[in-house]
Specification:
The chain has ten helices and five strands; from the N terminus they run H-H-H-H-E-H-H-E-H-E-H-E-H-E-H. It is α/β, with parallel strands linked by helices. It folds into two domains: about 55 residues, no CATH class; about 150 residues, HUPs (Rossmann fold). Strands 3-2-1-4-5 form a five-stranded parallel beta sheet, sandwiched between helices. The longest helix has 23 residues. The chain is elongated. The two termini are about 30 Å apart.
């Protein structure tokens, strides 16, 4: 069942991601049909496509959707006691790193940078780097190379990679929490901080709560600085909308399948 869930989640998302839906809708809208029912349906579809083409270049719908997720948690102010730090990896471009034989970061690199910063600031803290692969074509060599690259990167920046527990089996956020908990002992009553993108934090906290692990959120990689009524940038609007749609879909699916206790988790007590 877990494998079916994983495969379906990847296949369906690739089909129904915002960019693909728009392209498919435009293609269908250009078709003609003599069937009256199909004709009416195509007319409605054409109107929908025209509406999207008007709305998306102007209105930052993605920002409106992602803002409540990014503001769900605040960065911790008082970090006097830090027993452990977890980062949900995602800041490395695996394929480019393997091709160029050197570390290549992507737009989520702030996760790894903050992990490095806090790891250096709290030398007694236990560290977990949750890696793995979310690809259907899971490449063991790419994962091993990522771990090797990251270990070298952390060592070069002064953070001893021997301190880090590299978890490489997980394929999604939920499995990351499961495997991280399985590899760690005696976390009850300890202060463990989890680092991930702000819009992804709710699903992450909910996944750890499902394992009975009350983690402390440390959100990074914010996508929205301020809410705007209009934003004449269709590329930027589509990018944020894609992230927002993916995250809201993930939250809904996780909630419906019992992986999290709320549609938008806040903490383990809710």
């Amino acid at each position: 069942m877990p494998d079916i869930f994983f495969i379906l989640s990847k296949v369906l998302w690739n089909v129904f991601r915002i960019e693909n839906v728009i392209i498919i809708s435009i293609f269908l809208a250009l078709l003609n049909s003599t069937n009256s029912y199909r004709y009416v349906a195509l007319i409605w579809l054409k109107n929908l496509v025209m509406l999207l083409l008007v709305i998306l270049p102007i209105f930052p719908v993605g920002q409106w959707l992602i803002y409540p997720l990014e503001t769900r948690f605040s960065k911790p102010i008082n970090m006097d006691s830090v027993d452990g730090i977890i980062v949900l990896a995602g800041g490395v471009n695996r394929k480019q790193s393997v091709f160029h034989k050197d570390m290549q970061f992507n737009d989520q690199a702030e996760r790894d940078i903050k992990f490095l910063e806090l790891g250096l600031a709290y030398p007694a803290a236990r560290l977990i780097y949750v890696g793995g692969s979310s690809s259907l074509k899971k490449s063991v060599s790419e994962i091993e190379n990522e771990i090797s690259f990251m270990a070298s990167f952390f060592d070069s920046m002064g953070l001893n990679s021997a301190r880090i527990n590299f978890e490489a089996k997980s394929r999604n956020t939920y499995e990351g929490a499961v495997f991280a908990k399985a590899s760690t002992e005696n976390v009850d009553g300890e202060n463990w901080y989890v680092i991930t993108s702000a819009y992804h934090m709710a699903r992450s906290v909910g996944s750890f709560c499902s394992q009975g692990w009350q983690v402390i959120p440390f959100p990074v990689d914010f996508r929205v600085d301020e809410l705007k009524l209009v934003n004449f940038n269709i590329i930027a609007n589509l990018e944020v909308l894609s992230s927002a749609a993916r995250e809201w879909t993930g939250l809904m699916v996780y909630w419906l399948t019992g992986r999290i206790g709320e549609i938008v988790p806040s903490n383990c007590d809710a």
